[in-house]
Specification:
Layout: H1 11-23, H2 28-40, H3 51-56, H4 68-79
Length: 81
């Protein structure tokens, strides 16, 4: 169900938004609707893993006792001698 909404915005913002909408072949109403929908959706605290990142998971095999902080510290010490 669609409902009409009246907004009061700065003229420059409206002009820029109309220009953007026209360039991207989208109505200003649809653009506002998409924005409001995206900011009001329930977002979980979980980070979504993209298929690309998932496909790269496990590519590098490291020992279980690998100390990331120690190795990175040594790398930086060597880099900035």
């Amino acid at each position: 169900m669609e409902t009409k909404l009246t907004l009061r915005l700065d003229k420059k913002v409206i002009a820029s938004a109309k220009n953007y909408a026209q360039k991207h072949k989208i109505s200003l109403s649809k653009m506002v609707e998409s924005y409001l929908d995206s900011v009001t959706k329930n977002k979980s605290n979980d980070i979504e893993i993209t298929p690309l990142v998932e496909s790269l998971s496990g590519v590098v095999k490291l020992p279980n006792d690998f100390d990331f902080k120690k190795e990175y510290t040594e790398y930086l010490s060597e880099k900035y001698k």
